Amino acid sequence: MGRVGLPAPLGLVCCLLLLLGGPGGRGTPQGPWEEEQGPGAEGGLWGRAKYEAVKKHLGAVGALSKQYWQYMACKVWHEGCQEEEEEEKQSSAGPGWSLPLVGQDYLEILSTWYCGFGKCCKTGDCRIVNNITGLEADLNRQLHGQHLAKEVVVRAVRGFLQNPQPQKALVLSFHGWSGTGKNFVARMLASHLYRDGPKSECVKVFISLFHFPHHTYVDSYKAQLKKQISETVQLCKQSLFIFDEAEKLHFSLLDAIKPFMARYDNKDQLDYRRSIFLFLSNLGGNAINEVALDFWRAGRAREEISMEFLEQRLRLELLEPAENGYAHSHLLEENLIDFFVPFLPLEHHHVKLCARDAFLARGFPYTDTALDEVAGMMVFVPKEEKLFSAQGCKSVSQRISYFLP
């Protein structure tokens, strides 16, 4: 059997007793009544001075234990910590005990030990992991046909997180046909930035037609949206906000959240500079697909498509007058979006890779013939070339059910 470790407070008590030591190592006192046997007597087990010293240190350990657990709780659960800190400051102004140096050392040692399990040392928040290495590896392994999206997302997020004092929140706008990987990358980003992934209290997902279905209630939606963003940032300094179907958002909703994405000037207000905003949209898909088709017809590999070449075409399409929030909001004209991330249309061999991943995720064997059959069930466009999957990889995981034993 392994040894059972002592709880932290008890361990501190034992350590202090060892440091203080009993007279000659003869054990623990039986009680204060044995502290002296006469005026100035030193023949008892413990003298008065020794007893008072132990009493004082044990009191310090008790207080240290309380502070230790408060400290550790605040590392994980932040609610109520500010109030406790204020009370502590007020109480420390008057007479009372002060945390001994050895106690401070123990706090650092124990918090470091705890962070080894909670992964909270680098960020100071156990909910945040910021695993960019894992993000890059998973994008390379699981995101197919999107060399531009992989590069832009990893570079943008890594640079943002490494900046000690960003001037504004990071704003990324994902564009492309449905099924090309926009939601997939958003979920993957949440999974690698936060311990609890998309379910983290630091992550908020808004779906336009689900959360904001009626334009007649747009004023109410604006108030609710601003409140949710503010409360999330108060709870998590590094927050992630995902807006799916962003082109269907009312333009006044986009303008309402504009201050959260703008440059930060007022130090008296809540600081949003550590926030990340993702907008997912089908807008620009036609421009992206035309570029990919032109490259294919010219016999050039899609990997030759550069961000500089595609971003200009994408921006022009987004600025065209249309019935969408992007065209009418101030996000574009005020350059609040840091990166437009294009998702290219997926070809037959990309769909096969998605099918392979779906088989592996469910723990089933597959054959190349089965992958071809799954991809063959998809609709490909244009009509002449049948080059791009009209649905991307969407519904691939459902279609493999036809091929399972």
Structure description:
The chain contains 17 helices and 7 strands. Helix content is 50%, strand content 7%. It has 3 domains: 1-21 and 52-75 and 100-118, no CATH class; 132-342, P-loop containing nucleotide triphosphate hydrolases (Rossmann fold), CATH 3.40.50.300; 348-403. The longest helix has 29 residues, at 48-76. The protein has 405 residues and is of the alpha/beta class. Strand 6 (380-381) and strand 7 (388-389) form a beta hairpin. A 5-stranded parallel sheet has the order 2-3-4-1-5. Helix 1 (8-20) packs antiparallel against helix 2 (48-76) and helix 5 packs antiparallel against helix 7 (182-193).
Tell how many strands the DSSP assignment holds: 7
The CATH homologous superfamily of the largest domain: P-loop containing nucleotide triphosphate hydrolases
**Assigned CATH class of the largest domain:** Alpha Beta
| Anisotropy-based shape | globular
Give the integer mean of the pLDDT values.
78
CATH names the topology of the largest domain as Rossmann fold
- How much of the sequence lies in strands comes to 5-15%
What number of domains? 3
Q: What portion of residues is helical?
A: 40-55%
**SS field, number of helical segments:** 17
Q: What kind of sheet is the major sheet?
A: 5 strands, parallel
Instruction: Give helix and strand order, one letter per element, not per position.
Output: HHHHHHEHEHHEHHEHHHEHHEEH
Strand order of the largest sheet: 2-3-4-1-5
| Cα-based radius of gyration, to the nearest Å | 30 Å
Low-pLDDT sequence parts:
1-46, 75-80, 88-123
Instruction: Based on the coordinates given, report the CATH architecture of the largest domain.
Output: 3-Layer(aba) Sandwich
Give the CA-CA distance, first to last residue: 46 Å
Class derived from helix and strand content: alpha/beta
Family: Belongs to the ClpA/ClpB family. Torsin subfamily.
Subcellular location: Cytoplasm; Endoplasmic reticulum lumen
GO molecular function, one term: ATP binding
Keywords: ATP-binding, Cytoplasm, Endoplasmic reticulum, Glycoprotein, Nucleotide-binding, Signal
